[in-house]
Amino acid sequence: MDLAAVGKHDPAEFFREVIQAKDNLRIRPGDFLILFDKEFVRVPPELACEMRTMDDRSGEFRAHFAGFIDPGWGWGLGGEGLGRPLTLEVKAHEQLMISSGQPIAKIGFDVWPACRKFHTTQVTHKK
Fold first, then answer.
1. What are the CA-CA distances from residue 61 to residues 1, 64, 81, 115, 127 (Å)?
2. Sheet of strand 105-111: strand arrangement
3. Burial 64-75 (b: 16+ CB within 10 A, else e)
4. pLDDT digits over 95-108, tens only?
5. Which of 1, 18, 34, 95 is 20 to 30 Å from 45 at the Cα level?
6. To 5 degrees, how large is the angle CA 57–CA 62–CA 64?
7. Separation CA 45–CA 74 (nearest Å)
């Protein structure tokens, strides 16, 4: 693929259209989707976070291949940030139906005191 050939590639060669039925999304085995959450997350600069499995009983899939959430994510320079959405990398191993607003992952927090002195800038989402 020639990455410099902007607009000259047919997306259908690389992607399959995902059709969402109302507020539900059907995921087939082997599908790999990039989704984002509806909530805005704020992480204080002294905390590190990791996205973790919500509940193994909800289906065989992963929603957190990268998983790490940077200290200060959505925080802003002085804590004035409004938060930022998280990107979810979802891969299903069985057929699943995900509903809009359904929790599919949780966040675990770890104290990371050394981060505060390195936190100097942060991009924030403004409504």
1. 30, 9, 32, 32, 32
2. 68-69, 47-53, 105-111
3. beebebebbbbb
4. 888 888 887 778 88
5. 34
6. 125
7. 10
Helix or strand run (H / E) with residue 114: none
Write down the CATH superfamily of domain 11-118: Deoxyuridine triphosphatase (dUTPase) (2.70.40.10)
* CA distances to 26, 88, 117 from 39, in Å: 21, 12, 27
Residue 21, CB-side half-sphere exposure with 13 Å CA sphere = 6
With beta carbons less than 8 A apart as the criterion, state whether 62 and 104 touch: no
User: By the 8 A CB rule, do 37 and 90 touch?
Assistant: no
- Residues 9-30: tens digit of each pLDDT: 998 888 777 766 778 888 888 8
Alpha-carbon gap, residue 62 to 56, rounded angstroms:
10
Tens digits of residue pLDDT in 56-104: 665 555 655 667 888 889 999 888 999 998 888 888 888 888 888 887 7
